[in-house]
Amino acid sequence: MLQYLKIQNLALLQSVTLEFDAGFTSVTGETGAGKSVLLGALNLLSGARSNKEMIRQGSDKLEIEACLFFLNSDSMNGLLDTLGLPLCDDGSLILYRSLDQSKQSRIRINGNLATLAQLKTLGEHWIDFHGPGEPQKLFKERCQLELLDAFAQNEGVYGDYLKVYKEWMALKKEISDLSNAERLDSDEITFIQNELKKMERIDLTEEAIEGLESDYLKITQAQELREVLQASTDLLSSESGIIDQLNALVLKMSALNEFNPSYSEFLDRAQSLQIESDDLSGALDQLNGDFDFEPEAIELILEQMNTWQEIKRKYGGSLEAVISQKEALERKLYSQGDIDAALEKLESESKLLEASLNSVADTLYQKRLKAAQLLSKEASSLLTSLGFKKATLSIELNLTDGFTEEGGSRCRFLFAPNLGQDSLELNKIASSGETARVMLALKTVLADVDQTPLLVFDEVDANVGGEVGRSVGTEMARIAESHQVFCVTHLPQVASLSKQQLLVEKVQKQSETSVSIEPIHGDEERRIAELARMLGDRNSKSALTHARELLA
Fold first, then answer.
1. How close are the terminal C-alpha atoms of the chain, in Å?
2. Where are the domains of the chain?
């Protein structure tokens, strides 16, 4: 849900910071008061394109910031991870966007610089607009099919289909690659065999390669290091070396201690030096042994290192690239053995997968068909209470030619506003008010399965009033039980049912015009006055009484 929204210098709005709760929020105000400013801010944060004319006149910079909270942020974090962006901290997603008159505009997501494409991708997952000129996910057939599957609870059967479909597609590609594979002549086969032999001389594992490179380094540095180690050992343990001198020093310190026991400190320190020198001498001897290679071992390491450097240079410069090339060469060589037999085997496997796909696709189609009938019936029934006397919503389900990622069938949501009219696709409905109410009906029926957290409705109450307006508000409130809902409305019947109400006003001053947005749900008298205005007269006793009744 959206927790707070900060807007600075957008259109006629100078500055506002709004905090939100879950549930239903209405946005009201006179026509032309600037309610679109709030929607514009949300649009910009969802990835809409911008222009510098949006910046408030006389200002250099427009800024918008929002914090969204996800009780379960696993899905959003998965998307952020895919986009290479920081994950949500304690479920919070921070979005920031600025437009500057003279500098480059900036977008930040959880503190990191981001692109407009990334912001738009996120926007498709946290907000859905329903209003004139706004992109609507439900216009897309793929989204319609996803919602139908969610309504039908097809996650399991569709997951089964998708698993088999991906196996089948991979097998078809393998068949295609093998069918189109070039036939190698004897020289090419010999070359591949020789390359594979080179690769097989080496243990192509990360641990083995690290060991080989370490041994090679020891060998190449062995002579120089052994000379240093020998010189160091001579200094310590040769005749008159440090150890002999420290032994003599210990004897002297023992004699000093016998003269006066208070000098025992010097004896202790001399003995410590003696012990440390003995330990150092032993450690250097042991290290010297690490560089003692048998001639055969040296020859083998040098040969393997030369081979490794050759194939690494030839095949990509990394262990992963070499392994990938080795597997590719093995497949290429294997395919030459008996291409026809291999193709026959793959075709047989493909037919088995196709039989499985047919079975699962048929099960999926039947479940979709049943769900389509139920969903269209429930939505059509709801449209009646939203002001459509004879409107129908139908869902057309068709089989596709062959298997597709969507499950072998596709659907279209169709709408006929009046009896006797042809059903049209949702994106061809002429009236924006009709579109918004159709969306409201679908959102109500699909409320439990639609995962978009924030739904924004604009002009959903166009050309309706009275009892229908109350029904619109009731459905908004019902959706708000499982989503956060924003609604720009001119109907008091709708606004009175909202948990929060924002009042947008245009303020005229001597030198400028500005817009203010204020929450009024905490001020009962002010809210009653606004509802009375929406009813026709904020000073009318009957309007004020009606406003109180609506809130009650």
1. 27
2. 1-131+499-517, 186-337
| Structure tokens given for 355 | 């039989």
> In this predicted model, what pLDDT tens digit does every residue of 360-381 receive, in sequence order?
999 999 999 999 999 999 988 8
Torsion sign over Cα 298, 304, 310, 315:
negative
Q: What gap in Å lies between CA 510 and CA 293, rounded to an integer?
A: 94
Q: What DSSP element (H or E) covers 14?
A: strand 13-19
pLDDT digits (tens, 9 = 90+) for 23-33: 999 999 888 77
Tell me which CATH code domain 1-131+499-517 carries.
3.40.50.300
Contact 90, 115 (CB under 8 A): no
The answer to whether residue 430 scores a pLDDT higher than 60 is no
- pLDDT, tens only, 432-477: 667 777 878 888 888 777 788 999 988 777 666 677 788 888 888 9
pLDDT in tens, 265-282: 888 898 898 888 888 887
Closest by CA to 464, choosing from 510, 497, 431, is 431
Q: Which of 471, 484, 478 is nearest to 437 (CA)?
A: 471
**CA–CA distance, 391 with 397 (Å, rounded to integer):** 20
What is the band of 511 on the pLDDT scale with cuts at 50, 70, 90?
confident
φ, ψ dihedrals at 335, nearest 5°: -65, -20
**Per-residue b/e over 74-89, b at no fewer than 16 CB within 10 Å?**
eebbebbeeeebbebe
pTM here? 0.62
Q: What are 107's strand-pairing partners?
A: 97
* Measured CA angle at 440 (ends 434, 441), to 5 deg: 90
Extract the tokens encoding 45. 């944060």
Q: How many CA atoms lie within 13 A of 251 on its CB side?
A: 5
Please list the residues that pair with 15 across neighbouring strands: 8
